[in-house]
Design a protein that fits this description.
DNA polymerase, domain 1; 3-stranded antiparallel β-sheet
């Protein structure tokens, strides 16, 4: 199995899976390989010798060890992807995961900022400094276009057409999409460009957003900057850069945007992923009903 696993990991790296997915899948599959040693009496684990019962025993062992259904669902997804690869390459004849029941879990409704909180957040950076002007543009663009933090970090100057209010984004799996950029975000970026010229050094790249030393941002640096502003306006814990993405989608749908258009802007491959935001807006409708209708209270 070890050689098969290494080949599989090379395969999904070439498929441009997200770094987080790569790390999680590799960890899960190596844990599975280690567990299987008991069935192969300490010898080499053979991929073609793994059967359904071994997989079920591992999942039961994890469940007994208090591993939650969400983690179990990811581990079964990693196994399914691995065995699909083995079948594709002819290493096995059948995918044993076809006979394994997937664990179910309740999808948590995403956190999102209210429109009032968004207004406070976008006003939080001071405009007196170069980094304050930059941070304002970062916040405006994240909320305006629903970007992932990784997508924001990778943006280049020539990815944005400020005159047309459009932006080219490279998302998961290196898939490209074009998303609108709102007028407020366009204005904030125009204000930032002179500041960027001052932050820039001879070693700077063509990335849109630069650190105060003129270098490229990584995701952790961007997250730390955003956390600073989140703490100023939100008492609730659990807010993250992704909360701005959730807010973007929730506010669009609450104001009547088409679900498929929102799916396209977010870069979701599956419409079901986007549909969770309809549940969020429906929850708001139900709360308003219970609060305001004479017969709506519990």
């Amino acid at each position: 199995m070890r050689n098969d696993l290494e080949n599989y990991l090379q395969y999904i790296r070439a498929e441009a899976k997200s770094p987080c997915t790569l790390i999680a899948y590799e960890r899960d599959l190596r844990q599975f390989e280690s567990y299987l040693q008991r069935f192969f009496e300490g010898g080499e684990v053979r991929s073609d010798g793994i059967d359904v019962q071994m997989i079920r025993d591992w999942l039961r062992w994890l469940h007994d060890g208090k591993v939650g259904n969400r983690s179990l669902a990811r581990k079964t997804a990693a196994l399914n992807s691995f065995f699909r690869y083995l079948k594709l390459t002819g290493r096995i004849a059948k995918n044993p995961m076809d006979r394994v029941k997937r664990p179910k879990f309740e999808k948590k409704l995403p956190h999102y900022f209210t429109e009032e909180e968004i207004r406070a957040l976008l006003a939080a950076p001071g405009r007196e400094s170069l980094t304050g002007v930059r941070d304002c543009a970062i916040l405006e663009l994240l909320y305006s276009s629903g970007l992932r933090i990784s997508e924001l970090a990778e943006l280049r100057l020539n990815d944005i057409d400020l005159n047309r209010g459009l932006m080219r984004v490279v998302g998961k799996g290196s898939k490209e999409r074009v998303v609108p950029v709102g007028s407020q975000a366009v204005s904030a970026i125009r204000d930032y460009l002179p500041a960027r010229a001052k932050l820039r050094t001879e070693e700077s790249s063509e990335r849109l957003f630069l650190t105060k030393s003129g270098k490229d941002f990584d995701q952790r640096q961007l997250t730390n900057i955003l956390d600073k502003y989140f703490r100023r306006i939100a008492l609730q814990k659990g807010f993250s850069p992704h909360t701005l993405r959730h807010s973007f989608a929730t506010h669009l749908l609450a104001r009547g945007a088409d679900l498929r258009a929102v799916q396209e802007m977010l870069g979701h491959a599956n419409l079901q992923t986007t549909e969770i935001y309809t549940h969020v807006t429906l929850e708001d409708v139900k709360k308003a009903y219970k609060k305001g209708h004479p017969r709506g209270k519990d």
